[in-house]
Design a protein that fits this description.
Elements (H helix, E strand, L loop, with lengths): L7 H5 L10 E2 L10 H13 L9 H21 L6 E4 L2 H12 L8 E5 L8 H10 L2 E5 L9 H7 L4 E7 L11 H10 L3 E5 L11 H4 L3 E5 L9 E5 L1 H6 L24 H16 L2 H19 L4 E3 L11 E6 L4 H10 L2 E2 L1 E3 L5 H4 L8 E5 L6 H15 L1
Parallel strand pairs: 1-11, 3-4, 3-5, 5-6, 6-7
Antiparallel strand pairs: 2-8, 7-8, 9-10, 10-13, 12-13
Helix pairs in contact: 2-10, 3-10, 4-5, 11-14
């Protein structure tokens, strides 16, 4: 489906939050949500307020919500619904699953993380290493803020248990070649563990093609509720001993790693989110449209703008880190908000390993585009950026 066939105005009519005229350009911090998702959540609370396993209708409705959500997640990720794990968010899943994965690791085992990573995918390993005597090392980036695959290859040895990386940077938008990382990790006997929060919101996902072992994302980045969604390679999940209440359900295998009662209303919202995405052409159409929009943004930037990292849409999603010469990022974000444009200023963007590679002194603006943004919004925004210096 061509991006030109994405009817953005029809899309926007499905969001009450987009009707007030404010321009949301902060998708990496969280997306707006179509009304149908909120309605699905409210409907589940109203009509399916129960738990699984009972003989009455509201319980059976909950069971259908859970089964549907697993099927929808499997289709979204291109995996078996059995291998889906739901959780509070990516970071919580990362902390929980990393402890499960490492039960039989030995002191001195190594973990590799990437300088492109969000700290939600780094801190679980650092804290685990502090508790268990493991070592954590960084995979470097090149001058244009692309993962240095040669550095990864140099740092792999028989003591590396996991290679953890983002699929796309939440700060500078760089896409990581996860299939290549997976291949290198597996050659060394390590597993490939992916934080895909930023990637899955903008690109089609196929965990089979990526070859990774663990893949975690959060639905609130792609117009859904605050809910973590993970894939684990089936054989790997079967080999792990879960942290779980003993009488709790253990099948399918992904469910072993969901302690406690699931947030059934959010799962209903998740299914409504997947239905929404599929109804507008799916992630293929979304990706193509956002690439056009991102290139329009780059082409329209004033000379006073400095973009950190890749300068075209090749190898990135439409997430940009930039500064305007002579204007602090904090001041720019405040002035832009007053004029009706939502962007943030921050010092690290939670990418602590990347901060030393970025040449700005204090902070930077992050602009994140998503499929409900329009060409007109982009044109007006870049004109506002040009006016900041004046």
């Amino acid at each position: 489906m061509s991006a030109t066939l994405l009817d953005v105005e029809a899309v926007r009519r499905r969001f009450s939050s987009l009707q007030g005229g404010f321009v949301f350009l902060d998708a990496p911090g969280g997306s707006q949500v179509p009304d149908e998702v909120g309605e699905a959540i409210a409907r589940a609370l109203r009509d399916a307020s129960a738990n699984v396993g009972a003989n009455y209708e509201t319980s059976k409705r909950v069971e259908r919500i859970l089964a549907t959500a697993r099927d929808d997640a499997g289709r979204f990720l291109n995996c078996s619904s059995d291998d889906v794990i739901f959780g509070q968010n990516m970071t919580v899943l990362d902390f929980a699953l990393s402890r499960t994965a490492s039960r039989d690791w030995k002191e001195g085992d190594r973990i590799l993380v990437s300088r492109l990573d969000h700290d939600g995918g780094v801190a679980p390993w650092i804290e685990l290493a502090a508790d268990r005597g493991f070592a954590v090392d960084w995979i470097d980036v090149t001058d244009d803020l692309v993962l240095d695959y040669d550095d990864l290859a140099r740092k792999l040895d028989e003591r590396v248990r996991v290679v953890s990386c983002v699929a796309s940077s939440n700060a500078v938008g760089t896409i990581v070649d996860v299939a290549r990382v997976s291949e290198l990790a597996h050659q060394a006997g390590a597993i490939c563990w992916v934080d895909a929060v930023q990637y899955a919101a903008h690109e089609p996902v196929d965990v089979q093609a990526l070859g990774c072992d663990v893949f975690i994302t959060s639905a609130y980045k792609f117009c859904g509720p605050h809910l973590g969604v993970a894939y684990g390679r089936h054989e790997l999940l079967e080999s792990w001993r879960p942290y779980k209440a003993r009488p709790a359900p253990m099948e399918p295998v992904g469910r072993r790693f969901e302690p406690g009662t699931a947030p059934y209303e959010l799962l209903a919202g998740f299914s409504a989110t997947i239905a929404y995405l599929e109804s507008i052409g799916g992630m293929e159409a979304i990706s193509e449209y956002e690439r056009e929009l991102g290139q329009r943004f780059l082409d329209g930037l004033p000379e006073s703008a400095t973009v950190y990292g890749l300068q075209t849409m090749d190898g990135r999603v439409a997430t940009f880190l930039l500064n305007i010469e002579g204007v602090s990022a904090a001041d720019a974000a405040l002035r832009l908000a007053e004029r009706g444009y939502g962007v943030w200023a921050h010092d690290t963007w939670y990418s602590l390993g990347l901060r030393g590679e970025l040449p700005y002194p204090d902070d930077a603006l992050r602009v994140g585009l998503i499929h409900y943004n329009t060409a007109d919004e982009i044109d007006r925004f870049v004109a506002e950026l040009a006016s900041l210096r004046r």
